[in-house]
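Now read the record:
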Amino acid sequence: YLLHMDQLTADSHILIEPILNKKPHGFAMHGKKFNYGLMIKNIGDTPSVEFMIGDITLESAQGQNIIGTETKQFYTSRLNPREEKHFDVGEHSSFMHGLVRISAKISPIEKERRVACFQRSPSTNTHLFVKTNDWVDFFYIKSPQEIAQEIANSRIRFLTFSILLLTLVYLIISIYLNR
């Protein structure tokens, strides 16, 4: 685990996670409204500095030229170690699909302060350093084709299980009647 110099000189260490439809690193559906927010947690050993979170931007990480910027600013008071706070950014709908990059600017109230920003890897649950006073993470927006494929796959699984179950019942009845 390598430490970046910015981590060593930072006044605070903050983990930020995107919350989609009330789930950390959840997913959204193309063209449908979804609710999103941010979870901020002090992962340092001392109380954090006070800061504002703003310039929250959603943009395609797959080359689609679609960008959405939120103008709201959120104030975060000092957070004790392991304390967390949730902010509801609001409802959003997008015509982009696939991997989406979400980013935000962190502005300490005392301008000379520095906040080391981290993201949590949903697959390994580890905290990854992003940058000082800037944060970025990713989430996924499913396309209509992916949703249709998921529905078809679940129906195929159900039919396969039903056929297997009926075959077993038929075999058991056949064995029982042939005795």
